[in-house]
Amino acid sequence: MGSTPDFGRRDLIKRSAALGLVAVPSISTLTACASGGDDDGNKVDKGEKSAKNPLAVNESAGLDVVIFDGGFGQKYAKDAEAEYAKAFPKTKGKIKHSATQKIQTVLQPRFNGGTPPDLIDNSGAEQMDFGTLVAKNQLTDLTPLLDAPSVDDPNKKVRDTLRPGVVEMGQFDGKPVWILYYAYTVYGVWYSKTNLEKLDAEYPETWDDMLKLCEKAKKKGIAGWTYPGKFPYYMPFSLYPFIAKIGGPDTLIAIDNLEPNAWKHPAVKAAFEAYYELYKKGYILKGSAGLTHIESQTAWNQGKALFIPNGSWVENEAKKTTPDDFQMSVGAPSSLDSGDKMPFGTIWASGGEPFIVPKSAKNPEGGMELLRIMLGEKSTKNFVKQVSSLTSLNGGTDGLSLPPGLASAQAALEKAGKNVVNPRLQDWYVALQKQQIGVGALGEMMAGRMTPAEAIKKIQKFADDTAKDDAVKKYKHA
Protein backbone atom coordinates (compact mmCIF):
# COMPACT_ATOMS: atom_id res chain seq x y z
CA MET A 1 0.00 0.00 0.00
CA GLY A 2 2.97 0.99 -0.72
CA SER A 3 2.96 4.47 0.60
CA THR A 4 0.07 4.15 2.98
CA PRO A 5 -0.98 2.57 6.22
CA ASP A 6 -3.24 0.53 3.94
CA PHE A 7 -1.78 -2.66 2.58
CA GLY A 8 -0.94 -3.69 -0.64
CA ARG A 9 -1.17 -0.45 1.10
CA ARG A 10 -1.83 -1.72 0.86
CA ASP A 11 -1.16 -0.56 0.22
CA LEU A 12 -1.28 -1.71 1.20
CA ILE A 13 -1.00 -0.53 1.13
CA LYS A 14 -0.44 0.05 1.55
CA ARG A 15 -0.38 1.44 1.63
CA SER A 16 1.93 5.38 2.00
CA ALA A 17 1.95 10.60 3.97
CA ALA A 18 -0.70 12.36 5.91
CA LEU A 19 -2.91 9.31 6.25
CA GLY A 20 -5.70 8.40 8.54
CA LEU A 21 -6.91 11.97 8.67
CA VAL A 22 -10.35 10.63 7.93
CA ALA A 23 -12.04 7.47 9.10
CA VAL A 24 -12.03 4.41 6.90
CA PRO A 25 -15.34 4.44 5.01
CA SER A 26 -18.04 2.12 6.23
CA ILE A 27 -19.08 -0.86 4.20
CA SER A 28 -22.39 0.80 3.37
CA THR A 29 -20.59 3.86 2.03
CA LEU A 30 -18.28 1.66 -0.01
CA THR A 31 -21.21 -0.21 -1.43
CA ALA A 32 -22.78 3.07 -2.46
CA CYS A 33 -19.52 4.07 -4.08
CA ALA A 34 -19.42 0.89 -6.06
CA SER A 35 -22.97 1.05 -7.31
CA GLY A 36 -22.36 3.25 -10.36
CA GLY A 37 -23.45 2.01 -13.75
CA ASP A 38 -21.26 0.49 -16.42
CA ASP A 39 -22.88 2.01 -19.48
CA ASP A 40 -20.59 1.64 -22.51
CA GLY A 41 -22.22 4.60 -24.25
CA ASN A 42 -19.59 7.07 -23.05
CA LYS A 43 -16.57 5.03 -24.15
CA VAL A 44 -14.23 6.33 -26.83
CA ASP A 45 -13.78 4.26 -29.96
CA LYS A 46 -10.86 1.85 -29.92
CA GLY A 47 -7.85 2.58 -32.06
CA GLU A 48 -6.08 0.34 -34.52
CA LYS A 49 -4.15 -2.53 -32.99
CA SER A 50 -0.50 -2.73 -34.01
CA ALA A 51 2.89 -3.80 -32.70
CA LYS A 52 3.35 -0.31 -31.24
CA ASN A 53 -0.24 -0.16 -30.02
CA PRO A 54 -1.08 -3.69 -28.83
CA LEU A 55 -4.03 -2.59 -26.70
CA ALA A 56 -5.66 -0.68 -29.59
CA VAL A 57 -5.57 2.66 -27.80
CA ASN A 58 -7.44 5.53 -29.43
CA GLU A 59 -4.41 7.65 -30.33
CA SER A 60 -6.18 10.99 -30.02
CA ALA A 61 -8.50 10.35 -27.05
CA GLY A 62 -8.02 12.04 -23.71
CA LEU A 63 -6.88 10.24 -20.58
CA ASP A 64 -8.10 10.83 -17.03
CA VAL A 65 -5.80 9.72 -14.20
CA VAL A 66 -6.27 10.02 -10.42
CA ILE A 67 -3.27 9.28 -8.20
CA PHE A 68 -3.19 8.87 -4.43
CA ASP A 69 -1.00 11.69 -3.15
CA GLY A 70 0.87 9.81 -0.44
CA GLY A 71 4.40 8.77 0.39
CA PHE A 72 5.23 8.08 -3.25
CA GLY A 73 4.00 11.47 -4.40
CA GLN A 74 2.74 11.83 -7.96
CA LYS A 75 5.72 12.85 -10.09
CA TYR A 76 6.41 9.25 -11.13
CA ALA A 77 2.91 9.09 -12.63
CA LYS A 78 3.25 12.46 -14.36
CA ASP A 79 6.53 11.29 -15.88
CA ALA A 80 4.83 8.15 -17.19
CA GLU A 81 2.02 10.30 -18.59
CA ALA A 82 4.65 12.32 -20.49
CA GLU A 83 5.89 9.05 -22.00
CA TYR A 84 2.30 8.24 -22.97
CA ALA A 85 2.00 11.61 -24.73
CA LYS A 86 5.24 10.89 -26.62
CA ALA A 87 3.85 7.55 -27.77
CA PHE A 88 0.54 9.15 -28.78
CA PRO A 89 1.32 12.79 -29.73
CA LYS A 90 -2.32 13.63 -30.48
CA THR A 91 -3.14 13.19 -26.77
CA LYS A 92 -0.86 16.07 -25.76
CA GLY A 93 -2.85 18.48 -23.64
CA LYS A 94 -5.63 15.94 -23.24
CA ILE A 95 -4.19 14.06 -20.27
CA LYS A 96 -5.97 15.10 -17.09
CA HIS A 97 -3.95 14.35 -13.96
CA SER A 98 -5.26 14.87 -10.46
CA ALA A 99 -4.02 13.79 -7.05
CA THR A 100 -5.80 13.45 -3.73
CA GLN A 101 -5.55 11.75 -0.37
CA LYS A 102 -9.34 11.43 -0.28
CA ILE A 103 -9.84 8.82 -2.96
CA GLN A 104 -13.23 7.71 -1.62
CA THR A 105 -14.67 11.19 -1.17
CA VAL A 106 -13.49 12.46 -4.54
CA LEU A 107 -14.38 9.41 -6.62
CA GLN A 108 -17.65 8.24 -5.07
CA PRO A 109 -19.75 10.79 -6.98
CA ARG A 110 -17.98 9.91 -10.21
CA PHE A 111 -18.60 6.18 -9.77
CA ASN A 112 -22.21 6.85 -8.90
CA GLY A 113 -22.57 9.04 -11.99
CA GLY A 114 -20.94 6.50 -14.29
CA THR A 115 -18.04 8.82 -15.10
CA PRO A 116 -15.00 7.46 -13.23
CA PRO A 117 -11.42 8.14 -14.35
CA ASP A 118 -9.56 5.86 -16.74
CA LEU A 119 -6.92 4.89 -14.18
CA ILE A 120 -6.97 5.14 -10.38
CA ASP A 121 -4.26 4.62 -7.78
CA ASN A 122 -6.67 3.27 -5.16
CA SER A 123 -4.64 3.75 -2.00
CA GLY A 124 -4.61 5.65 1.27
CA ALA A 125 -6.86 5.92 4.29
CA GLU A 126 -9.87 6.44 2.00
CA GLN A 127 -9.07 3.51 -0.24
CA MET A 128 -12.16 2.06 -1.91
CA ASP A 129 -13.01 -1.48 -0.83
CA PHE A 130 -11.80 -3.91 -3.49
CA GLY A 131 -14.09 -6.73 -2.43
CA THR A 132 -17.09 -4.51 -2.95
CA LEU A 133 -15.84 -3.12 -6.27
CA VAL A 134 -15.27 -6.64 -7.58
CA ALA A 135 -18.58 -7.95 -6.24
CA LYS A 136 -20.42 -5.05 -7.92
CA ASN A 137 -18.64 -5.71 -11.25
CA GLN A 138 -17.17 -2.22 -11.32
CA LEU A 139 -13.65 -3.01 -12.56
CA THR A 140 -12.10 -3.73 -15.95
CA ASP A 141 -10.48 -7.11 -16.42
CA LEU A 142 -6.75 -6.36 -16.85
CA THR A 143 -5.99 -9.63 -18.67
CA PRO A 144 -5.46 -7.79 -22.03
CA LEU A 145 -2.75 -5.68 -20.36
CA LEU A 146 -1.06 -8.74 -18.85
CA ASP A 147 -1.15 -10.59 -22.18
CA ALA A 148 0.18 -7.58 -24.13
CA PRO A 149 3.89 -7.46 -25.03
CA SER A 150 6.05 -5.60 -22.54
CA VAL A 151 7.39 -2.17 -23.47
CA ASP A 152 10.98 -3.42 -23.33
CA ASP A 153 10.74 -6.82 -25.01
CA PRO A 154 7.98 -7.56 -27.55
CA ASN A 155 8.69 -11.26 -27.13
CA LYS A 156 7.67 -11.15 -23.45
CA LYS A 157 4.17 -10.63 -22.15
CA VAL A 158 3.74 -8.08 -19.38
CA ARG A 159 2.66 -10.87 -17.00
CA ASP A 160 5.98 -12.64 -17.56
CA THR A 161 7.95 -9.59 -16.42
CA LEU A 162 6.25 -9.28 -13.02
CA ARG A 163 7.44 -10.44 -9.61
CA PRO A 164 5.97 -13.70 -8.27
CA GLY A 165 2.53 -13.31 -6.73
CA VAL A 166 1.67 -9.93 -8.25
CA VAL A 167 -0.82 -11.30 -10.78
CA GLU A 168 -2.48 -13.53 -8.18
CA MET A 169 -2.88 -10.58 -5.81
CA GLY A 170 -5.09 -8.88 -8.35
CA GLN A 171 -7.41 -11.87 -8.55
CA PHE A 172 -10.42 -12.68 -6.43
CA ASP A 173 -11.40 -16.35 -6.26
CA GLY A 174 -8.99 -17.08 -9.10
CA LYS A 175 -11.09 -15.03 -11.50
CA PRO A 176 -9.80 -12.35 -13.93
CA VAL A 177 -7.20 -9.87 -12.72
CA TRP A 178 -8.90 -6.72 -11.48
CA ILE A 179 -6.01 -4.94 -9.75
CA LEU A 180 -2.40 -4.26 -10.71
CA TYR A 181 -0.16 -3.57 -7.75
CA TYR A 182 2.54 -1.24 -9.01
CA ALA A 183 4.92 -0.92 -6.09
CA TYR A 184 6.49 -3.95 -4.44
CA THR A 185 6.64 -3.57 -0.69
CA VAL A 186 8.84 -5.31 1.84
CA TYR A 187 7.31 -5.23 5.32
CA GLY A 188 9.07 -5.90 8.58
CA VAL A 189 10.90 -4.43 11.57
CA TRP A 190 12.74 -1.30 10.47
CA TYR A 191 15.78 0.01 12.28
CA SER A 192 18.92 2.15 12.01
CA LYS A 193 22.18 0.22 11.69
CA THR A 194 23.94 3.30 13.06
CA ASN A 195 21.81 3.38 16.21
CA LEU A 196 22.35 -0.33 16.81
CA GLU A 197 26.10 0.12 16.37
CA LYS A 198 26.02 2.81 19.06
CA LEU A 199 24.77 0.08 21.40
CA ASP A 200 27.38 -2.34 20.09
CA ALA A 201 24.55 -4.48 18.76
CA GLU A 202 23.31 -6.15 15.60
CA TYR A 203 19.75 -6.91 14.56
CA PRO A 204 18.44 -9.58 16.99
CA GLU A 205 17.65 -12.85 15.24
CA THR A 206 15.94 -14.35 18.31
CA TRP A 207 13.22 -12.91 20.53
CA ASP A 208 15.37 -13.41 23.63
CA ASP A 209 18.05 -11.26 22.01
CA MET A 210 15.40 -8.71 21.05
CA LEU A 211 14.34 -8.39 24.69
CA LYS A 212 17.95 -8.16 25.87
CA LEU A 213 18.67 -5.38 23.38
CA CYS A 214 15.52 -3.51 24.38
CA GLU A 215 16.59 -3.73 28.03
CA LYS A 216 20.05 -2.42 27.13
CA ALA A 217 18.51 0.48 25.24
CA LYS A 218 16.09 1.22 28.09
CA LYS A 219 19.01 1.67 30.50
CA LYS A 220 20.33 4.37 28.18
CA GLY A 221 16.97 6.12 27.98
CA ILE A 222 16.09 4.73 24.56
CA ALA A 223 12.88 2.84 23.80
CA GLY A 224 13.05 -0.50 22.06
CA TRP A 225 9.99 0.06 19.87
CA THR A 226 7.54 2.68 18.71
CA TYR A 227 4.50 2.36 16.46
CA PRO A 228 1.67 4.57 15.15
CA GLY A 229 -0.89 4.07 17.89
CA LYS A 230 -3.46 6.12 15.99
CA PHE A 231 -3.13 3.68 13.10
CA PRO A 232 -2.29 0.37 14.81
CA TYR A 233 -2.94 -1.58 11.63
CA TYR A 234 0.78 -1.01 11.05
CA MET A 235 1.48 -3.67 13.68
CA PRO A 236 0.65 -6.58 11.34
CA PHE A 237 3.53 -5.57 9.05
CA SER A 238 5.85 -7.37 11.43
CA LEU A 239 3.33 -9.33 13.52
CA TYR A 240 1.75 -11.37 10.70
CA PRO A 241 5.03 -12.76 9.32
CA PHE A 242 6.02 -13.43 12.95
CA ILE A 243 2.87 -15.56 13.33
CA ALA A 244 3.67 -17.38 10.07
CA LYS A 245 7.25 -17.96 11.15
CA ILE A 246 6.10 -19.52 14.43
CA GLY A 247 3.18 -21.57 13.13
CA GLY A 248 3.84 -21.96 9.42
CA PRO A 249 2.20 -20.28 6.39
CA ASP A 250 -1.04 -22.24 6.80
CA THR A 251 -1.69 -20.24 9.98
CA LEU A 252 -2.13 -17.05 7.95
CA ILE A 253 -4.07 -18.83 5.21
CA ALA A 254 -6.62 -20.00 7.81
CA ILE A 255 -6.90 -16.42 9.09
CA ASP A 256 -7.39 -15.07 5.56
CA ASN A 257 -10.04 -17.72 4.87
CA LEU A 258 -11.97 -16.71 8.02
CA GLU A 259 -11.81 -20.28 9.29
CA PRO A 260 -13.38 -20.93 12.72
CA ASN A 261 -10.88 -20.56 15.58
CA ALA A 262 -8.06 -19.51 13.21
CA TRP A 263 -7.05 -16.76 15.63
CA LYS A 264 -6.89 -19.27 18.49
CA HIS A 265 -3.90 -21.05 16.94
CA PRO A 266 -1.01 -21.37 19.42
CA ALA A 267 1.23 -19.38 17.06
CA VAL A 268 -1.09 -16.38 17.34
CA LYS A 269 -1.10 -16.63 21.11
CA ALA A 270 2.70 -16.87 21.22
CA ALA A 271 3.18 -13.91 18.90
CA PHE A 272 0.68 -11.71 20.75
CA GLU A 273 2.23 -12.55 24.09
CA ALA A 274 5.71 -11.73 22.79
CA TYR A 275 4.57 -8.29 21.57
CA TYR A 276 2.65 -7.67 24.78
CA GLU A 277 5.86 -8.33 26.68
CA LEU A 278 7.32 -5.25 24.98
CA TYR A 279 4.58 -3.21 26.63
CA LYS A 280 4.81 -4.97 29.99
CA LYS A 281 8.56 -4.43 30.27
CA GLY A 282 8.38 -0.78 29.29
CA TYR A 283 10.19 -1.22 25.99
CA ILE A 284 7.73 0.86 23.97
CA LEU A 285 8.27 4.60 23.57
CA LYS A 286 5.96 6.44 25.95
CA GLY A 287 3.12 8.14 24.13
CA SER A 288 3.27 5.83 21.10
CA ALA A 289 -0.42 5.01 21.53
CA GLY A 290 -1.23 8.60 20.54
CA LEU A 291 1.16 8.96 17.59
CA THR A 292 0.40 9.09 13.89
CA HIS A 293 2.60 7.19 11.44
CA ILE A 294 4.54 10.37 10.65
CA GLU A 295 5.05 11.20 14.34
CA SER A 296 6.23 7.69 15.20
CA GLN A 297 8.60 7.63 12.22
CA THR A 298 10.01 11.01 13.24
CA ALA A 299 10.61 9.83 16.82
CA TRP A 300 12.33 6.75 15.40
CA ASN A 301 14.47 8.89 13.11
CA GLN A 302 15.43 11.00 16.12
CA GLY A 303 16.77 7.90 17.85
CA LYS A 304 14.09 7.80 20.53
CA ALA A 305 13.28 4.17 19.63
CA LEU A 306 15.24 1.41 17.89
CA PHE A 307 12.50 -0.44 16.00
CA ILE A 308 9.30 0.34 14.13
CA PRO A 309 6.92 -1.91 12.13
CA ASN A 310 6.63 -0.50 8.62
CA GLY A 311 6.81 -1.02 4.88
CA SER A 312 9.55 -0.09 2.44
CA TRP A 313 7.81 3.17 1.50
CA VAL A 314 9.06 4.54 4.84
CA GLU A 315 12.45 5.51 3.40
CA ASN A 316 10.85 8.00 1.03
CA GLU A 317 8.08 9.05 3.38
CA ALA A 318 10.44 9.79 6.28
CA LYS A 319 13.37 11.20 4.30
CA LYS A 320 12.87 14.78 5.53
CA THR A 321 13.61 13.73 9.11
CA THR A 322 16.08 10.88 8.47
CA PRO A 323 19.71 11.69 9.43
CA ASP A 324 22.26 11.26 6.64
CA ASP A 325 24.14 8.57 8.58
CA PHE A 326 21.01 6.66 9.69
CA GLN A 327 21.66 3.54 7.54
CA MET A 328 17.98 2.56 7.39
CA SER A 329 17.42 -1.19 7.29
CA VAL A 330 14.65 -3.76 7.52
CA GLY A 331 14.77 -6.94 9.60
CA ALA A 332 12.66 -10.06 9.30
CA PRO A 333 10.80 -11.15 12.46
CA SER A 334 13.09 -12.55 15.13
CA SER A 335 12.83 -16.28 15.82
CA LEU A 336 10.64 -17.02 18.83
CA ASP A 337 12.34 -20.34 19.61
CA SER A 338 13.61 -23.56 18.04
CA GLY A 339 10.05 -24.77 17.49
CA ASP A 340 9.34 -22.17 14.78
CA LYS A 341 8.00 -23.72 11.58
CA MET A 342 9.79 -21.30 9.24
CA PRO A 343 13.41 -20.11 9.27
CA PHE A 344 14.79 -16.74 10.26
CA GLY A 345 14.52 -14.51 7.22
CA THR A 346 10.83 -15.27 6.64
CA ILE A 347 9.31 -11.98 5.62
CA TRP A 348 6.14 -10.38 4.27
CA ALA A 349 6.58 -8.91 0.80
CA SER A 350 3.88 -8.20 -1.73
CA GLY A 351 2.52 -5.84 -4.30
CA GLY A 352 1.53 -2.40 -3.06
CA GLU A 353 -0.01 0.76 -4.51
CA PRO A 354 -2.98 -0.84 -6.26
CA PHE A 355 -4.10 0.52 -9.63
CA ILE A 356 -7.52 -0.12 -11.13
CA VAL A 357 -9.30 0.69 -14.38
CA PRO A 358 -13.04 1.23 -13.77
CA LYS A 359 -15.36 -0.77 -16.00
CA SER A 360 -17.28 2.37 -16.96
CA ALA A 361 -14.11 4.37 -17.70
CA LYS A 362 -14.28 6.38 -20.91
CA ASN A 363 -10.87 5.20 -22.13
CA PRO A 364 -10.00 1.89 -20.43
CA GLU A 365 -7.47 0.96 -23.12
CA GLY A 366 -5.62 4.20 -22.37
CA GLY A 367 -5.61 3.44 -18.66
CA MET A 368 -4.13 -0.01 -19.32
CA GLU A 369 -1.57 1.40 -21.75
CA LEU A 370 -0.34 3.88 -19.15
CA LEU A 371 0.14 0.96 -16.77
CA ARG A 372 2.05 -0.91 -19.51
CA ILE A 373 4.38 2.09 -19.83
CA MET A 374 4.79 2.30 -16.05
CA LEU A 375 5.84 -1.36 -16.01
CA GLY A 376 8.66 -0.69 -18.45
CA GLU A 377 12.26 -0.41 -17.32
CA LYS A 378 12.47 3.36 -17.92
CA SER A 379 9.48 4.20 -15.71
CA THR A 380 10.51 1.61 -13.14
CA LYS A 381 13.99 3.06 -12.75
CA ASN A 382 12.48 6.52 -12.52
CA PHE A 383 10.15 5.34 -9.74
CA VAL A 384 12.97 3.59 -7.86
CA LYS A 385 15.18 6.68 -7.99
CA GLN A 386 12.38 9.03 -6.95
CA VAL A 387 10.76 7.16 -4.10
CA SER A 388 13.17 4.45 -2.91
CA SER A 389 10.78 1.60 -3.65
CA LEU A 390 10.81 -1.43 -5.89
CA THR A 391 8.10 -1.88 -8.49
CA SER A 392 6.33 -5.07 -9.47
CA LEU A 393 8.61 -5.35 -12.49
CA ASN A 394 10.98 -8.20 -11.72
CA GLY A 395 14.36 -6.47 -11.72
CA GLY A 396 14.46 -2.90 -12.96
CA THR A 397 17.24 -1.85 -10.60
CA ASP A 398 20.27 -2.79 -12.72
CA GLY A 399 22.83 -0.01 -12.76
CA LEU A 400 21.10 1.96 -10.02
CA SER A 401 22.75 2.96 -6.76
CA LEU A 402 20.10 2.02 -4.22
CA PRO A 403 19.61 3.99 -0.98
CA PRO A 404 20.25 2.07 2.26
CA GLY A 405 16.66 1.10 3.07
CA LEU A 406 15.87 -0.13 -0.42
CA ALA A 407 19.16 -2.03 -0.67
CA SER A 408 18.31 -3.63 2.67
CA ALA A 409 14.82 -4.56 1.46
CA GLN A 410 16.24 -6.16 -1.66
CA ALA A 411 18.77 -8.09 0.44
CA ALA A 412 15.97 -9.24 2.77
CA LEU A 413 14.04 -10.58 -0.24
CA GLU A 414 17.10 -12.47 -1.43
CA LYS A 415 17.66 -13.95 2.04
CA ALA A 416 14.01 -14.97 2.34
CA GLY A 417 14.05 -16.86 -0.94
CA LYS A 418 10.82 -18.87 -0.99
CA ASN A 419 10.01 -17.95 2.62
CA VAL A 420 7.90 -14.96 1.65
CA VAL A 421 4.36 -14.69 3.00
CA ASN A 422 1.56 -12.54 1.65
CA PRO A 423 -1.48 -12.19 3.95
CA ARG A 424 -4.60 -11.20 2.00
CA LEU A 425 -6.86 -10.08 4.84
CA GLN A 426 -6.09 -6.41 4.14
CA ASP A 427 -7.15 -6.81 0.49
CA TRP A 428 -10.26 -8.89 1.03
CA TYR A 429 -11.71 -7.40 4.24
CA VAL A 430 -10.59 -3.80 4.69
CA ALA A 431 -12.91 -2.90 7.57
CA LEU A 432 -12.09 -6.09 9.48
CA GLN A 433 -8.36 -5.58 9.10
CA LYS A 434 -8.13 -1.87 9.85
CA GLN A 435 -10.99 -0.85 12.08
CA GLN A 436 -11.63 -4.05 14.00
CA ILE A 437 -8.38 -5.99 14.25
CA GLY A 438 -6.12 -2.93 14.06
CA VAL A 439 -7.88 -0.21 16.02
CA GLY A 440 -10.27 -2.41 17.98
CA ALA A 441 -7.80 -4.96 19.30
CA LEU A 442 -4.11 -4.62 18.42
CA GLY A 443 -4.07 -0.94 19.32
CA GLU A 444 -5.75 -1.70 22.63
CA MET A 445 -3.33 -4.53 23.42
CA MET A 446 -0.18 -2.56 22.58
CA ALA A 447 -1.42 0.31 24.75
CA GLY A 448 -1.92 -2.12 27.65
CA ARG A 449 -5.67 -1.72 27.70
CA MET A 450 -6.30 -5.33 26.67
CA THR A 451 -4.46 -8.58 27.37
CA PRO A 452 -3.39 -10.90 24.53
CA ALA A 453 -6.13 -13.37 25.49
CA GLU A 454 -8.75 -10.62 25.40
CA ALA A 455 -7.44 -9.32 22.08
CA ILE A 456 -7.52 -12.77 20.50
CA LYS A 457 -11.05 -13.41 21.74
CA LYS A 458 -12.21 -10.07 20.36
CA ILE A 459 -10.51 -10.55 17.00
CA GLN A 460 -11.94 -14.05 16.63
CA LYS A 461 -15.42 -12.62 17.19
CA PHE A 462 -14.77 -9.89 14.61
CA ALA A 463 -13.66 -12.55 12.12
CA ASP A 464 -16.62 -14.81 12.91
CA ASP A 465 -19.05 -11.91 12.49
CA THR A 466 -17.51 -11.09 9.12
CA ALA A 467 -17.74 -14.75 8.08
CA LYS A 468 -21.45 -14.80 8.98
CA ASP A 469 -22.24 -11.47 7.31
CA ASP A 470 -23.99 -12.26 4.03
CA ALA A 471 -23.47 -8.66 2.90
CA VAL A 472 -19.69 -9.21 2.77
CA LYS A 473 -18.44 -11.21 -0.21
CA LYS A 474 -16.03 -13.93 0.88
CA TYR A 475 -12.74 -14.89 -0.74
CA LYS A 476 -10.42 -17.83 -0.18
CA HIS A 477 -6.92 -18.88 -1.15
CA ALA A 478 -6.95 -21.12 -4.19
Observed structural traits:
2 domains; 10 strands; alpha/beta; D-Maltodextrin-Binding Protein, domain 2; 478 residues
Walk me through what this model shows:
- It is a single chain.
- The chain has 478 residues and is of the alpha/beta class.
- It has two domains: 63-184 and 350-410, 3-Layer(aba) Sandwich (D-Maltodextrin-Binding Protein, domain 2); 186-349 and 420-468, D-Maltodextrin-Binding Protein, domain 2.
- The protein has helices spanning 27-33, 75-87, 103-112, 130-135, 143-147, 166-169, 193-198, 207-219, 236-247, 249-256, 266-280, 293-301, 314-317, 364-374, 377-387, 404-416, 425-428, 430-446, 452-468; strands spanning 63-68, 95-100, 119-121, 180-192, 223-225, 305-311, 328-331, 347-356, 390-391, 420-421.
- Strands 1, 2, 3, 4, 5, 6, 7, 8, 9 and 10 form a ten-stranded mixed sheet that branches.
- Helix 2 links the parallel strand 1 (63-68) and strand 2.
- Helix 2 runs antiparallel to helix 15 and helix 18 (430-446) runs antiparallel to helix 19.
- The protein is globular.
- The protein starts with 26 loop residues before the first helix and ends in a 10-residue tail after the last helix.
- Mean pLDDT is 90; it is low at 1-39.
- Pfam families: SBP_bac_1 (PF01547).
- Keywords: Signal, Transport.
- Belongs to the bacterial solute-binding protein 1 family.
- This is ABC transporter substrate-binding protein.
- Its main location: other.
